[in-house]
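Lab notebook: predicted structure, single chain.

Context: the supervisor wants predicted structures on file for every construct in the current expression panel, including those that have not yet been purified. This is the next one on the list. No modifications to the sequence; it matches the entry in the shared construct table.
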Amino acid sequence: MERAKKILVVDDESGIRFLLSEVLLNKGFEVSLASDGQESLEKLEQDHFDLVVTDINMPRLDGVSMLKRMKKTGREEKVIIMTGNPADQRLLDEGLPHVESHLFKPFGIESFLNVVIAATA
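Prediction complete. Output recorded below exactly as produced.
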């Protein structure tokens, strides 16, 4: 049997982290959670993930800074960005790793699952 795909969900809103985690666990994914970019980098040091789903605007370390650090250190996890601001110019930064998909908040659970399943296929 194929191992469960491992997903790191990064969002400073606990309700969003919990909801996305429950949805992913119910679909058979293995899920880890982080409340900001700094915590996610700590989790990435300890483990490998198939996918990182991250918010952009977070305290301590935002999603853009976190993703730049991931790219600098050669991380190869696939990335999905969640943001409430589709016009955020930081998302065009060349220092970012390749992004599989952008989800613009608010988004539906079905849309979320579709992009996650496509990214982990």
